């Protein structure tokens, strides 16, 4: 497939002009000469340079990679049909549908974009973090940095001591069983050639504890609403976790809050300040 530069540039420009700052969680700022987002704002949302994005709208530069197109599709809050159209214009086959997909729906993103001051994250069914707010990064670290099987918190639980250190030791046994339970359930639902099945097979070959809990054949263990953390800077926190499920995509928006007036609420406020300073 060949890139259609004029159509690609026109599509990007028109989609950008349809979005307002509030649609993507950005402040309105000073008076704007024209409607829509600025190019530098779309570039920032897509995690690329303004120059690179500008060249695409000006029909210049090399053919963008699939990774770049996926990032722009997410930055512009495109629907799946719009994302696939963008891939075709850029000369690439769109990602296959039906499996685990990193493309977050515009509706879920609109909710997430309004949670600046709250720890929140969007995760896949395998516990792969796709988006985090600043307070969430302050609470658990940047969970989007992982690659390969380590993207899944279920895999990290059995292979990375730092992951466990964030949680109260009293909950470790249940969490290990819960992660194994979820992986077993998704491996059965998605089939023997799925990513869930591959993760389970890899862990069975690497980790004695996983083999032990896997052999329990437990399914249906759910995350508890109350989560107990042990943060390296502020100590113990007890937080409530509310979940919003996007059934079409298999994505979950997790929002963490503390009881008003509690010690955990004060620690969460402190973490938000520390996180903002770090950012």
UniProtKB/TrEMBL annotation:
<dbReference type="InterPro" id="IPR010982">
    <property type="entry name" value="Lambda_DNA-bd_dom_sf"/>
</dbReference>
<dbReference type="InterPro" id="IPR001387">
    <property type="entry name" value="Cro/C1-type_HTH"/>
</dbReference>
<dbReference type="Pfam" id="PF13560">
    <property type="entry name" value="HTH_31"/>
</dbReference>
<dbReference type="InterPro" id="IPR041413">
    <property type="entry name" value="MLTR_LBD"/>
</dbReference>
<protein>
    <submittedName>
        <fullName>Helix-turn-helix transcriptional regulator</fullName>
    </submittedName>
</protein>
<feature type="domain" description="HTH cro/C1-type">
    <location>
        <begin position="36"/>
        <end position="83"/>
    </location>
</feature>
<dbReference type="Pfam" id="PF17765">
    <property type="entry name" value="MLTR_LBD"/>
</dbReference>
């Amino acid at each position: 497939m060949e890139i259609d530069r004029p159509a690609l540039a026109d599509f990007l420009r028109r989609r950008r002009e349809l979005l307002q700052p509030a649609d993507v969680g950005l402040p309105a700022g000073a008076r704007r000469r024209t409607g829509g987002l600025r190019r530098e704002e779309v570039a920032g949302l897509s995690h690329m340079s303004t120059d690179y994005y500008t060249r695409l709208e000006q029909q210049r530069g090399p053919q963008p990679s699939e990774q770049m197109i996926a990032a722009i599709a997410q930055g512009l809050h495109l629907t799946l049909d719009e994302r696939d159209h963008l891939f075709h214009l850029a000369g690439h086959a769109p990602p296959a549908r039906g499996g685990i997909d990193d493309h977050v729906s515009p509706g879920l993103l609109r909710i997430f974009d309004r949670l600046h001051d709250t720890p929140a994250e969007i995760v896949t069914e395998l516990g792969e973090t796709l988006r985090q707010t600043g307070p969430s990064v302050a609470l658990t670290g940047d969970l989007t940095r992982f690659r390969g099987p380590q993207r899944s918190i279920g895999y990290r639980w059995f292979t990375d001591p730092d992951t466990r250190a964030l949680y109260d030791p009293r909950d470790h046994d249940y969490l290990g069983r819960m992660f194994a339970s979820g992986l077993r359930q998704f491996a059965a639902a998605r089939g023997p050639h799925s990513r869930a099945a591959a993760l389970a097979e890899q862990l069975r070959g690497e980790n004695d504890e996983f083999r032990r809990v896997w052999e329990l054949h437990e399914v249906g263990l759910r995350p508890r609403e109350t989560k107990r953390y042990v943060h390296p800077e502020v100590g113990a926190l007890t937080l409530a976790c509310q979940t919003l499920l996007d059934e079409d995509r298999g994505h979950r928006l997790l929002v963490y809050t503390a009881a008003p007036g509690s010690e955990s609420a004060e620690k969460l406020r402190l973490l938000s300040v520390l996180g903002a300073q770090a950012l």
